[in-house]
Amino acid sequence: MCGVVGIFGTSDVNLRLYDALTMLQHRGQDAAGIVTDKDGELHQCKGEGLVRDVFRRSHMVRLIGNLGVGHVRYPTAGSSGPALAQPLYVNSPYGICMAHNGNLTNDDELREHIFRADLRHLNTDSDSEVLLNVFAHELQLRGKLKPTSEDIFASVSQVHKRCRGAYAVVGLIANYGLFAFRDPHAIRPLCFGVRETDAGKEYAVVSESVVLDSLGFELIRDLHPGEALFIDKAGQIHLQQCAENHELVPCIFEHVYFARPDSLMDNISVYKCRLRMGEKLADKILRVRPDHDIDVVIPIPDTSRVSAQALAERLGVKIREGFMKNRYIGRTFIMPGQTERKKSVRQKLNAVKLEFAGKNVLLVDDSIVRGTTSQEIIQMAREAGAKNVYMVSAAPGVRYPNVYGIDMPSANELIAHGRTDDEVGEIIGADWIVYQDLEDLIAAGTEGNKQVKRFECSVFDGNYITGDVDEAYLNRIEALRNDAAKQEGDPSSESTKKSVIGIHNNSIA
């Protein structure tokens, strides 16, 4: 999962791009980057780490220009390292930079075709570089000295024909403008907004609407599935549907876990969706545990808090903050190894013992993936004196890997894969466990926007909507994503650190 932003301004956009990336930091903690355009000269700063660590004042003053794109990354397809920090750049045609959120499912096939037919070189194993080169090649085939919006849209149409999977893209063409597009299912989020200034209109394209709020832009709407946007050098905005077959099928896991609650996605409030998730989960508890003896509801910070509030209200049980969070520890969902994840849970959370001592405690989490975090937290609750510890998940059991841009573990590392709910509860040490029903989770989303007929729910039901994910593909990502493979490929050498430092001051001219 990544975060992307593109801004067309009437003055330098470097500081606003930085602020946007800090607002999107929850979407990726592996690397960050910004590229700006000043009269056709591109300036870049990118590297591994958090936004605050990658950019210094000396870098920001060199990121001049009224047009720019930014990216925060955590690794999904491909490995990790400074060379994979985005935006990515290709010099032909024109000079194009691109930031991508999502994952291509036919990148191996495309990689071969790019080499043999398009005669282009790929420097990394990133599917984002594949996507960039497909777009660049199709634009080059137009044969124009100066590209128009029609050329951009024709190229995006070809991208939709060649590429499969999930992609929400922002990019710039040196000295010509800002472009953005979304895959034909709109799996990954992308919206745009406008701001009126004395010097004219400014536009921003971002992964989450909360960024627009923060920067003072008014949300116009989400990009439609398959739709492309182009803002030319004169500041004129152009929009066109570029996919022959398109259907809005956004990822439900954005609402479960990734997105900020103060964002709107496809006209659905993430906050209200999570409230409804909590209400529906409470209703299920009342059905399957009508004689429950819950004394207190305690959310596991932070994503589950909204659902836990609604659940407690529906059950008529008090809610308390039983865990204090160290906000300087990263999400354990992204940690590469079991040992690191267990250690991180203890560093990240500390139990408030008086909220647990002698009580029957209901712990609420947004989802349960590997089960490592849940197991540790339940043990912490017992050590704090809880009489009984019950666990509920605002999402169904995660039983299948994600192939559309979320770095889910391999199937064998998912605790719910091949197990019943009761078996999961026994493994993590809960006295009983209740999962959200998938139909209730979907309803929590669709109630916010009746035009969304269905969601991408493959991690729960194994139904991959692009229709090209077979057992061979899943076996391949199994080999790439298991913990042993990630630990073997961990880029922590001194040479890697030096290359990060060296990339900061690079300027593409």
Please give a quick description of this structure.
This protein has 509 residues and is an alpha+beta fold. 33% of the residues lie in helices and 23% in strands.
Basic shape? globular
Number of strands: 21
Low-confidence stretches: 333-337, 491-509
* Proportion of residues in helical segments: 25-40%
**Class by SSE composition:** alpha+beta
The figure for the number of domains is 2
CATH class of the largest domain: Alpha Beta
Distance between the termini: 30 Å
Question: Any idea what the CATH architecture of the largest domain is?
Answer: 4-Layer Sandwich
SS element count, helices: 18
The average pLDDT value, as a whole number, equals: 91
Strand content of the residues, in percent? 15-25%
Q: Indicate the CATH topology of the largest domain.
A: Glutamine Phosphoribosylpyrophosphate, subunit 1, domain 1
Q: Describe the largest sheet.
A: 7 strands, antiparallel
Strand order of the largest sheet: 3-2-4-1-10-9-11
Structural Rg: 23 Å
CATH superfamily caption of the largest domain: Aminohydrolase, N-terminal nucleophile (Ntn) domain
